[in-house]
Design brief:
ten-stranded mixed β-sheet; globular; about 280 residues; Rossmann fold
Length: about 280
């Protein structure tokens, strides 16, 4: 099984954002792999391995794809160190692309690579758009399962059963492959991914994606990374969505202490205008 995982480098969300001249100032920002994309890599690795023996299943391949500037190669190498086999880096500046440009590039790459499955994070933590997975599936004409909290691969590897958390509990969808799956937080739970090879009794450690080992970091330096430009995939640096300006929300007013419930209700109705 070949699995393709699109990844994005994002500013570390733990850093305080600065706004300069109406735009977010990324000068001096620390860059990381988008957390949900790390979960997608972890999901793909679990589908392709025997977790109990820490060994890959013969014939499996994990390819990561990323669109970003030249120095995004650092974050791509992190994905290779986690266990991806090879990478495709489409070199471009962030202001040159939007979701539609990304989808067009991914379409071309998928046409060439012919993966059995595309697994991706449900959204990037910088833009929070939550668009690429759904748009990509629509453009490809592939089935999709979004916000996956669990995945089970069928014995014949021809379909997936995906569990999605909804308001009323858990909704299960069975989708044939090839398909597009976007993953949510709980996909990295100890038994969230089942591939029919890793024993049912095996628990993955932790509640997150695996960290690159020293051996993985050294191996990543030798793994192939293909580089290209937007034009190589039939795309142009012409985003439809453009950022015009960014402003901080107005500061909140100080809280108030009220003596009783009737006073609280009156203030909510008369002052806050929420009742």
């Amino acid at each position: 099984m070949k699995i393709l995982v699109p990844v994005k480098r994002v500013p570390d969300p733990t850093q305080k954002a600065k706004i300069k001249d109406g735009h977010i100032d990324l000068t001096g920002a620390s860059w990381i792999v988008n957390t949900f994309d790390e979960y997608a890599i972890e999901t793909a690795l679990r589908l392709l391995e025997n977790g109990a023996e820490n060994a890959r299943i013969p014939g499996g391949e994990l390819v990561v794809v990323s669109l970003g500037p030249t120095d995004a190669a650092k974050e791509i190498r992190t994905c290779l160190a986690m266990g991806a086999d090879r990478a495709i880096h489409v070199v471009c500046n962030d202001h040159e692309i939007d979701s539609l440009v990304v989808v067009k590039v991914l379409q071309a790459i998928i046409a060439a690579e012919k993966p059995d499955l595309v697994v991706m994070g449900k959204q990037a933590v910088d833009g929070d758009a939550n668009q690429v997975g759904q748009m990509l599936a629509a453009k490809l004409g592939w089935p999709q399962a979004t916000f996956a909290a669990s995945i089970e691969l069928s014995a014949d590897k021809a379909s997936l059963t995906v569990g999605r958390e909804v308001d009323g509990g858990v909704e299960y969808k069975k989708v044939p492959v090839p398909a597009v799956v976007t993953v949510d937080l709980r996909i990295v739970a100890p038994r969230a991914v089942k591939n029919g090879v890793t024993p049912e009794s095996h628990n993955y450690a932790g509640e997150g994606a695996r960290l690159p080992s020293l051996r993985g970091i050294m191996a990543a330096k030798k793994k192939p990374m293909t580089t290209g430009q937007l034009a190589d995939y039939g795309a142009a640096p012409a985003p439809v969505i453009q950022e015009l300006s960014v402003t901080l929300p107005p500061p909140r007013a100080a809280g108030q202490i009220v003596a009783d419930i009737p006073t609280l209700v009156k203030k909510l109705a008369d002052e806050a205008k929420v009742l």
